[in-house]
Amino acid sequence: MNDQNNSKITSVFLQNKNGIAAFLRFIKHIKLPKLFANLSDKRQKGKIDYSISSLALWAFSVCIFRQNSKNAFHCLLQNLESDERMGILNLLQIENGFNLPNYTTVDDALKNIHYDGLNNILFQLFEQLKKRKFFYNHLELLSGDSFLIGADGHWTHTYDQPHTCDENGNNNCPYCLPRKRYKGTPKEETYWVHMFVTFVLIFKDFSIPIYAYPLQSNQVNTSQSDDKLKQESELKAAHSVLQLIKDRFPKTKFLFLGDALYANAPFIKLCNGLNFEYKIVLKDNFKKVRKKCDELANLDFYKKSYTHKQKTKDKNDLILKNAAWFNNVQIEERLFTNVLKFSEKKEDENSKIISSYNGEWICSKKITQGNCFKEAKIARSRWLHEDVHNTLKNRGFDIKHDMARKNPNLLIFWKSMIFIALFVFEIFRHSTIAIKCRKNLTLTQFAKNLMHQLLKFSWDRIRGSPFLTKSKVQFRYVFARSP
Fold this sequence. Notes:
By secondary structure, the protein is of the alpha+beta class. The protein folds into three domains: 2-115 and 407-469, no CATH class; 144-278 and 383-394, Nucleotidyltransferase, domain 5, CATH 3.30.420; 285-369, no CATH class. 41% of the residues lie in helices and 20% in strands. It contains 19 helices and ten strands. It has helices spanning 2-5, 11-29, 32-37, 52-64, 70-78, 86-92, 103-110, 115-131, 226-248, 265-274, 287-297, 300-305, 372-380, 387-394, 408-428, 432-438, 443-456, 459-462, 466-469; strands spanning 147-159, 177-181, 189-202, 207-214, 254-258, 277-281, 307-314, 317-332, 335-347, 353-363. Strands 1, 2, 3, 4, 5, 6, 7, 8, 9 and 10 form a ten-stranded mixed sheet that branches. The chain is globular.
């Protein structure tokens, strides 16, 4: 290895060495190996060569280092010299010998683990952050004293042929949702999709998953259109998962941000029952509510007392904000909500409109002149969580890649592991040491670079880093401050 042959350690090497050393310490800091050790292990006790934690860490490494596929990762490891294996052996906590597990060994051990076990790890990681006062020390991440939570569904796979069949050749994957192309024509054909509804905690410049819910075909009406299927799936998941989150974190305050799909009486009742705040896009699905607000908006009293305007400067640009609100609007008998209407227009120094925005939401919190613009800002942050799906598909995680085509449970396990990798990476990348070592690398490049450091740098030099030699290490973080 070139890094070992260099007699003089450059400052670049020192910086990178500390990067991978910090990552290894961070994994222990969040007790990830111990969390994986608690996963269900149904292997025969006399035939176990590697712990369930080591094998789960192997799968985790594929995902967090953005290795594209388990086969590519396996081939990479198999081609390592014995001295190059020391870093990955340390990460996987394999202490005896130099042999690394084959990916078939990994799959055989993990195939019987239910996705709930991995969702439980997401819950535990969030609990750790709370107990360590991570959010208390970074109040800029919170909206008041509440965590913003959003949900969105997305296809992860599309199959033109069944990827697993029974003895009669019929699709027997419980997660395959049948769809039709060219419906009602001679060319009509069936294909299948997998769908996850992801629940994420939303912060200013990043989001972390807290629960990943895979839909099963027996839970939804698969004969409806794609849009309606997605809507039913998201609502079905929300009614199940929000209750799980409340049960797990009964004292934690959450504020749900949703699109117009969630603007319905049953969901508002769910939020009220769980004591979740909400801000949900208002469109034509609440026609009576919108009609009532339109009537009130024409009254002089409302125009005078329930509207607010604001002008601010952004360098040479003028920002014009307008808000109107309507509190205690009836949805149905004994069910009320509050409505916020907001518009924003940015003009240049020549009064030319650069950009404009209009939004309406139903809100659990009463709107006032003092909070109307703040509440609009919170409501508008909903779109941030939608970038999670873009990251999962296009930034190295390759969630659409088929990790275990013939075993539905194992396939879902691999997808769920991606969410754990995303959670861990999003927190680690905001540490001061990660920011320093990343420099101008993209996040995908940074993840792959950590893998390169682990395999190609001298293990003796890596383990000499203060991050691994000190008995106590405190991680510090930097986040974008809210304006």
